Amino acid sequence: MDWRTVGLLALVGVMAGVLSGLFGVGGGSIIVPALVWAGLSQKEASATSLASMILMSVSGVASYAAAGNVDWLAALMLTLGTVAGTQVGTWLLDKLPEAALRWLYVIFLCSVIAEQLMRVPERNSRIVPGLGSSLTAIGVGILIGLLSGLLGVGGGGVAVPALTMMGASDLVARGTSLLAIFPSSVSGTAANMRRGLVHLRNGLLVGFSAAVSTPLGSLAARSVSARAGTYLFVLYLMIVVARSIYAAAKVTPGLHTAHRPH
């Protein structure tokens, strides 16, 4: 690995860490393209991105937990789903084409954006414990794990809006999302390593860089209002949607070949 690549991956890690702390996401939307640029295949980049999120999530959870912004019970329910979902996602990553799930991801993100614009979470609200909220969290966790294993994303774009819809404040949703990312990252990385898809050196470089900058993002999240934080999150999701449409088009046979000259 040359110094140019090392510098790029370190910078990407810092950027991903800030996004992770600010929005409660894994940062795979920028990590995966950078790893592809560094020479990894799409599958290897997704697997290595997931590995880098282990260190990043630990750093982010510590920052949010210190301020009391983690719902541990909701995180446990999410974890029950993510561990199972990640195993399915990593299996699909190794077996199936990605186009259909990538387009479903785009549609889902568009619905999340619409929901976020219609409702701003309360800064001091909390999830009411109960069977309904627990089952919902487990279901959300399965979806997060599936996306994490298949696309190399942390699932924050799913977890954060889902947790706010369940009643969590914006800060608690982000802190809890980061906590849920940890077990899915560990579980998915273990499965991907058995399949030989993880480039550990690249993953550690991005992960360490991200872990250093994640607390800066969580500090920024606490310094803005819930409304401003929601609008910033929507802006981030719009960028992710644009990139996801491009990525989905690349793996969709008809669209991928339509623009080629004859």
From TrEMBL:
It comes from Bifidobacterium xylocopae. It comes from the Bacteria. It is found in: Cell membrane; Membrane. Keywords: Cell membrane, Membrane, Transmembrane, Transmembrane helix. The chain crosses the membrane at residues 6-35, 47-66, 72-93, 100-118, 138-159, 203-221, 228-249. This is Probable membrane transporter protein. Belongs to the 4-toluene sulfonate uptake permease (TSUP) (TC 2.A.102) family. InterPro entries: TM_pro_TauE-like (IPR002781), TSUP/Inactive_protease-like (IPR051598). It is a multi-pass membrane protein. One of its GO terms (cellular component) is plasma membrane. Its main location: membrane.
